[in-house]
Amino acid sequence: MAPSIHSRFYKVDKVAVNNTISLAQRIGVPQESYPDSLIHTIVGSETLDQLAAKYYGREDLWWRIADANPNRFALEWQPGETLVIPPLRVATRMPRR
User: What's the half-sphere exposure (Cβ side, CA atoms, 13 Å) at 23?
Assistant: First the structure.
């Protein structure tokens, strides 16, 4: 199934991983900083979808947090580490086409 035109994976090339076609890859995201971003310290086993629900009220916006922290794989964060939470206005904006 092709990604929706509203997906950040729209028009992304497919890759073969162990003979399986996939779109699972990090997309180059331009680094933007916003003075109203929050810094969150990971507590316990918090996940990005839990943080998105906490800060945005929508767990499906987890990938916006991942994009704001591109130097770490999202599943490798440990308690005590910090990450950037972009402001809601940034997390809910539609990408330019």
Answer: 11
Q: What percent of the chain has pLDDT over 90?
A: 29
Query: What are the CA-CA distances from residue 27 to residues 1, 7, 58, 68 (Å)?
Result: 19, 12, 22, 12
pLDDT band for position 27 (cuts 50, 70, 90)? very low
Give Rg (Cα) of the chain: 14
**Predicted model pTM:** 0.62
DSSP conformation class of 93? P
- The residue extents of the domains of the chain are 32-91
> What amino acid occupies position 90?
V
Domain 32-91 fold? Membrane-bound Lytic Murein Transglycosylase D; Chain A (3.10.350)
- Mean pLDDT along residues 10-21: 64
End-to-end alpha carbon distance in the chain: 21
